[in-house]
Write a structure and sequence with these properties.
alpha+beta; 4-stranded antiparallel sheet; 6 strands
Amino acid sequence: MDKLQCKFTILPGQDGKTNVCALTLISTLYNKTYAIPEDSQTVGVHNELIKTPAFANVKNSLKRRHQLRTVQITTTPELLKVYDDEDGNMQLGDQLIQDT
């Protein structure tokens, strides 16, 4: 897997007043799309992903609630440890992610 396509969206926070940047979908180059569970959507959970230059551009681009951006992110060994198991299944930490 060379790249992941990630969809980021600005969603309302739990209090309804704040905005939260969320990773909602991840797609592979093989046209498989995976939904991120709601409890793991905030970007604070995705430490390796937010270190990428592509995320810095997303963060600067998203300003208002319900805006979204879909970007390609080149995989690194660190990203693969978090999002891909040794068999090519998409995961988040130690949980498999549901494909859509």
